[in-house]
Amino acid sequence: MAQESKVSAAIDATQLAAIKEKLAGLRTDLAGVLTINLTGKDRKEILKMGDKTLAFVEKALEFANQNPGLVPGYINLDEANKDFALAKALSDIQKEFTPMVRGMEDTKMVAGSEAYNAMLLFYGFLKEANRSNQAGVQAICDELQKRFPGRSSRSATK
Question: CA of 136: how far to CAs of 43, 124, 145, 149, in Å?
């Protein structure tokens, strides 16, 4: 029985190079912006602006800009406007990437699963062929056994 394939696509070397070149261009374009690298703890503790709070911040900034006399001296309104504009722009960019990244993750997962499953079947077939003393199979089985996930070489020799 033939193995069913949910994904049958390829990215050739030329396409991969073009994609990497475009991504390098994006990294270059965003180099002056993507300068923060938060730790897990930072990510957990930082005050977050999501879709709902975005509307609040936008309206509050509108009122603050219309009423600068009400803005306390310890708030840098120019910087707040700049930060909001950056957050909004990055949010718009992220909304374009999120479905693509999810699609890449899903497709990579299915393609990897299909390749792994096929090679598990192949490995099982080789082990049977090895039990039947088929010529040339022992060396392949030994090499694959060393690389088999979840098995150390010490447990394989026991």
Answer: 54, 15, 15, 23
Q: What is the pLDDT of residues 66-89, one digit of tens each?
A: 999 999 999 999 999 999 999 999
DSSP 79-115: HHHHHHHHHHHHHHHHHHHHHHHHHHHHHHHHHHHHH
Least Cα distance to 156 among 135, 140, 142 occurs for: 142
| Model pTM score | 0.72
Token pair recorded at residue 132: 């039947």
User: Which residues have a Cβ under 8 Å from the Cβ of 138 and sit 6 or more positions away?
Assistant: 130
- Which are the contacts of 127, defined by CB distance < 8 A and separation ≥ 6? 141
